[in-house]
């Protein structure tokens, strides 16, 4: 796969295009906050929309979730199992929430997990007066996932190094 893009969205789009070219199963996950006081993922808002660069095609299912963990209270596992999937490749936002939760849950369910680090994004965080820049948040999450839960790869290495 030849992807030279620098942006997270462009890398995710490149990854998605490669998946489509190979005819691999694709499931999109969209987050929607369950109440009207949503901090970001309000129903029918731009924050809850899938980014245009990775918009699902008509034959690509979208799983609606209302929690950080894409498996919690959704049919994601049932869909993956029906497809005979034993390996998942995860990308998106935000690294410190949805990506982390989905990767850990997938590993706990027994899937081999690959997280595409340059197709994921994080936001800056603060804890007890310490401001943590987004790149440090992202690196910390990827390091933790890579230690125990997932293979962490760059977009250009997903196919060559993940055993596919």
Automatic annotation (TrEMBL):
Gene Ontology molecular-function annotations: hydrolase activity
Pfam families, per the entry: Isochorismatase (PF00857)
Domain of life: Bacteria
Gene3D superfamilies associated with the record: Isochorismatase-like (3.40.50.850)
Keyword vocabulary terms for this entry: Hydrolase
Limits of the Isochorismatase-like domain: 7-125
Protein name as annotated: Isochorismatase family protein
Native organism taxonomy: Bacteria, Pseudomonadati, Pseudomonadota, Alphaproteobacteria, Rhodospirillales
């Amino acid at each position: 796969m030849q992807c030279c893009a620098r942006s997270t969205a462009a890398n995710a789009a490149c990854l998605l295009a490669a998946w489509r070219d190979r005819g691999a199963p694709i499931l999109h996950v969209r987050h929607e906050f369950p109440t009207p006081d949503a901090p970001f993922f309000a129903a029918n808002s731009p924050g809850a929309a899938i980014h245009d660069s990775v918009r699902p095609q008509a034959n690509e299912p979208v799983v609606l979730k209302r929690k950080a963990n894409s498996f919690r209270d959704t049919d994601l596992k049932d869909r993956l199992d029906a497809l005979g999937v034993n390996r998942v490749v995860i990308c998106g936002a935000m690294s410190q929430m949805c990506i982390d939760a989905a990767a850990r849950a997938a590993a706990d369910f027994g899937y081999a997990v690959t997280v595409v680090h340059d197709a994921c994004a994080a936001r800056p965080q603060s804890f007890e007066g310490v401001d943590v820049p987004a790149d440090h948040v992202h690196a910390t999450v990827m390091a933790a996932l890579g230690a125990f839960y997932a293979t962490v790869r760059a977009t250009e290495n997903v196919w060559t190094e993940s055993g596919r």
